[in-house]
Amino acid sequence: MTQHTNGVLELVHVERTFKVGRRFVRVLDDISFSIGKGDILCLVGESGCGKTTTGKIVAGLLPPTGGEIRFLGQNVWEMNKEEFRHYRRAVQIIHQDPYSSLNPTQRVSTILTAPLLRHGIARNHKEAKEKALELLRIVDLTPPEDFYNKYPHQLSGGQRQRVSVARALTVNPEFLVADEAVSMLDVSIRVSLLQMLERLRNQMGVAYLFITHDLAVAKYFAWEGRIAVMYLGRIVEIGPTPQIINNPRHPYTKALLSAIPEADPKATRSKERVHLRSLDVPSLLNVPSGCSFHPRCPLYEAGLCDATVPQLVDVGDGVQVACHVVAREQGVA
C-alpha cells in the first residue's frame, strides 16, 4: 500500500537490480511512497540498504527496473524529452561529500551563474550575477560578495555544502533529494545547515527526500514530516515522525532508536533495550528468505518469519509496518 497517494511525486512498487558478475542483485524491492508539495520524507537505514539508489531514482539519475516513478501522475520514464527535462529541473540532488561535489576548477560565480544562463533563468551575465548573489544570501553565505569569486578549496565543508544547496536552487526546484547531506559536517555546522534547509521549506515550499543513517538527525529535521525506515532494500516501517520516534512498532526501528546516545543518564536507563539475535548485517548479495530481518529479530518465529515476506500493513495513526508478528498483535495480519 502506498502512503499519501495524492502526492506530487510517487514511487509505486519500485524495484532496482544490478548485475554483479554473473548474478543479478536486487537492491530495491517493492518501494512505494509519495511526497507532496512542501513535505519532508526522511529515508533512514544502515549503509548499503538502498537509500542512495532510491535517491538517484527519485532524482531521475537512474531508471527503476520495475515499478513506476510518477510526477504529477505521469510516469517519469515515459515522458518525452522536454517533459523529462522539466522533471530533472524540478527534482535536484544534494550529494553527501561537499569536497567532491563541486568542480574544483570553477569559482563559485561560475558554479551558480552557469545553470542560470543555461536554463534561461537569467537573460544575461549581469542578471545571472544578481541572482547568484541572492542565492548566496538565501543559503546564509554573507556578505555574498566575499564568496562569489572564491574556489571550493577556499571554503570550509559547511560553506561548500551551502554552495551545493545554492546550485540546486538555481533552477527553482520543487523537490530536493538530500543524500546524507550533513553527515560529513561537524555537529554545530550540521544543525545550522538543517535549520537553513527547514527555512527553505517554509519560505519556498521545497519538499525533501532526506536520506540519512541517523535517526536522531531525522527526528530533528522531519518532526513535522514522515520517516521511512529501510532495511536491505525494503521499507519496514513508515509513518509520521512523532509516531515513529515515540511509538516504534517494527523491531528494527526499535533497535535503531535504542542505539541513539542520550545526554541524560535517566533517559538512557529508561530507554527500551532491543536485544538482537545477531549483530551481523546480511549482504544484499545474499538476502535472507522471508523477512530479511529475521536472522537478527528478537520476535522471530520459525516457519513464519523465514518463509514469507511481510507486506506493509496499516497499524493505526498513519503508520504502516512490515512485520508478521506486529501485524498479528495489532489484529491486521
Key phrases:
four-stranded antiparallel β-sheet, disordered N terminus, 2 domains, Rossmann fold, 12 strands, eight-stranded mixed β-sheet, 333 residues, alpha/beta
Describe the structure.
The structure is a single chain. This protein is an alpha/beta fold and 333 residues long. The protein folds into 2 domains: 9-105 and 151-329, P-loop containing nucleotide triphosphate hydrolases (Rossmann fold, 3-Layer(aba) Sandwich), CATH 3.40.50.300; 106-150. Helix content is 33%, strand content 22%. The chain contains 12 helices and 12 strands. The strands form 2 sheets. An 8-stranded mixed beta sheet has the order 6-7-8-3-9-10-12-11, sandwiched between helices. α7 (187-204) links the parallel β7 (175-179) and β8 (207-212). α3 packs across α4. The longest helix is centred in the middle third of the chain and has 18 residues, at 187-204. It is globular and about 70 Å long. Mean pLDDT is 91; it is low at 1-5.
Main sheet makeup: 8 strands, mixed
Structural category: alpha/beta
Global geometry:
globular
Computed CA radius of gyration, to the nearest angstrom: 21 Å
Q: Which strand order spans the largest sheet, edge to edge or round the barrel?
A: 6-7-8-3-9-10-12-11
Number of helices: 12
Question: What is the typical, i.e. mean, pLDDT?
Answer: 91
Q: Helix amount, in percent? A: 25-40%
**Element order, helices and strands?**
EEEHEEHEHHHHEHEHEEHHHEEH
- Count of the separate structural domains: 2
Tell how many strands the DSSP assignment holds.
Answer: 12
Question: Span from first to last CA?
Answer: 14 Å
The CATH topology of the largest domain turns out to be Rossmann fold
Query: Can you tell me the CATH architecture of the largest domain?
Result: 3-Layer(aba) Sandwich
**CATH C-level of the largest domain:** Alpha Beta
Beta-strand level of the residues, as a percent range? 15-25%
- Low-pLDDT stretches are 1-5
CATH homologous superfamily of the largest domain? P-loop containing nucleotide triphosphate hydrolases
